[in-house]
Structures are given as C-alpha cells and as structure tokens.
C-alpha cells in the first residue's frame, strides 16, 4: 500500500477514490472492478475493521452496540494514509465529519446513489448484516437518515439506477474525466 507523501502537491495526493453509500449500493463490488480498471489498490474498510477486531460487524454491534461500531470505523478511517487506492467505506462512515474530511484530503468522495426499493431488494440480511443503526431502526429510516449525509460529503454523485457494476464504473470514470487506462 502506497502511503501519501504530504510533500506531494495536492493534485498528486488526491489520488484515492473513496466510495460511500448505503449497504447494498455496490461499494465493495464496484471498488474491486474500479481498482482493476484504474491500476489502483483496493481496500474495504469493513474488512479492515473485522480483521482488526477479530470478529464480524454484527458481533461488534451485538456485544458493544452500534455506537461502538461507529467509533471503531472512525478510528480506522482516521488512520488511513494512502495514495492510489479505491476505498470502499462502511455505510456509516458519513457519521464522522472528521473521518470524511481526512479521506477527502487524499481523495475524491463518490456517492453510489441507489434508490431505496433497489437497495431493499439487494439487502436481504438487514437484521444480521452488522449495520451501525439504532435498535429497531428500519432500513427505510436508515436510508432517510443517511441520504443527506451522503449528498453533503460527495464530490461526485453517481446515480446507479439500473446500471451494472461495470456500468457504474464506466460512468464514474467518465465523471472523473479520465479513461480507464489513464486513471
């Protein structure tokens, strides 16, 4: 993993592509494809959290509560110092202003915008997925709570609609004004 050198100019440092969005929006899948197409490394912060904690996200929520998961996620995000990466964040990353500002210092934040009905059809394991949500909070309520935060922090919003994961990558590359070979 290539750390960012603070002596590099801002344009060079902002080489990361940070994916934000709801669970089921395709951050991890799109991230892998995008990393491959753009010659970047890929990391999934949910995987980092689970590896560091030695347990699943759901176990963290069950044993320590959803706010503990949010704190752990914030700590992990604040420690990232990378260049040339595609970073798939957890859906709750946007609850931490400091973590998002830190990520933006080295990258472009992309919101993968998927409508609620499509998300609900994709996320079948809502109650056991390890989401940082208050007890009893329904998926639609979580969506309504997070949507303004995703929009607030996004540098670019990709309306995913009925696009395939490859289609989302193509649209993202187009929006970045780059070609897949030159990203």
UniProtKB/TrEMBL annotation:
<feature type="binding site">
    <location>
        <position position="146"/>
    </location>
    <ligand>
        <name>substrate</name>
    </ligand>
</feature>
<protein>
    <recommendedName>
        <fullName>Shikimate kinase</fullName>
        <ecNumber>2.7.1.71</ecNumber>
    </recommendedName>
</protein>
<keyword id="KW-0479">Metal-binding</keyword>
<comment type="pathway">
    <text>Metabolic intermediate biosynthesis; chorismate biosynthesis; chorismate from D-erythrose 4-phosphate and phosphoenolpyruvate: step 5/7.</text>
</comment>
<comment type="subunit">
    <text>Monomer.</text>
</comment>
<dbReference type="GO" id="GO:0009073">
    <property type="term" value="P:aromatic amino acid family biosynthetic process"/>
</dbReference>
<dbReference type="InterPro" id="IPR000623">
    <property type="entry name" value="Shikimate_kinase/TSH1"/>
</dbReference>
<dbReference type="GO" id="GO:0005524">
    <property type="term" value="F:ATP binding"/>
</dbReference>
<keyword id="KW-0028">Amino-acid biosynthesis</keyword>
<dbReference type="InterPro" id="IPR031322">
    <property type="entry name" value="Shikimate/glucono_kinase"/>
</dbReference>
<keyword id="KW-0963">Cytoplasm</keyword>
<dbReference type="GO" id="GO:0004765">
    <property type="term" value="F:shikimate kinase activity"/>
</dbReference>
<dbReference type="GO" id="GO:0000287">
    <property type="term" value="F:magnesium ion binding"/>
</dbReference>
<keyword id="KW-0460">Magnesium</keyword>
<keyword id="KW-0418">Kinase</keyword>
<keyword id="KW-0547">Nucleotide-binding</keyword>
<feature type="binding site">
    <location>
        <position position="70"/>
    </location>
    <ligand>
        <name>substrate</name>
    </ligand>
</feature>
<keyword id="KW-0067">ATP-binding</keyword>
<feature type="binding site">
    <location>
        <position position="91"/>
    </location>
    <ligand>
        <name>substrate</name>
    </ligand>
</feature>
<keyword id="KW-0057">Aromatic amino acid biosynthesis</keyword>
<keyword id="KW-0808">Transferase</keyword>
<comment type="function">
    <text>Catalyzes the specific phosphorylation of the 3-hydroxyl group of shikimic acid using ATP as a cosubstrate.</text>
</comment>
<dbReference type="Pfam" id="PF01202">
    <property type="entry name" value="SKI"/>
</dbReference>
<dbReference type="InterPro" id="IPR027417">
    <property type="entry name" value="P-loop_NTPase"/>
</dbReference>
<feature type="binding site">
    <location>
        <position position="46"/>
    </location>
    <ligand>
        <name>substrate</name>
    </ligand>
</feature>
<dbReference type="GO" id="GO:0009423">
    <property type="term" value="P:chorismate biosynthetic process"/>
</dbReference>
<feature type="binding site">
    <location>
        <position position="129"/>
    </location>
    <ligand>
        <name>ATP</name>
    </ligand>
</feature>
<feature type="binding site">
    <location>
        <position position="28"/>
    </location>
    <ligand>
        <name>Mg(2+)</name>
    </ligand>
</feature>
<dbReference type="GO" id="GO:0005829">
    <property type="term" value="C:cytosol"/>
</dbReference>
<dbReference type="GO" id="GO:0008652">
    <property type="term" value="P:amino acid biosynthetic process"/>
</dbReference>
<comment type="similarity">
    <text>Belongs to the shikimate kinase family.</text>
</comment>
<feature type="binding site">
    <location>
        <begin position="24"/>
        <end position="29"/>
    </location>
    <ligand>
        <name>ATP</name>
    </ligand>
</feature>
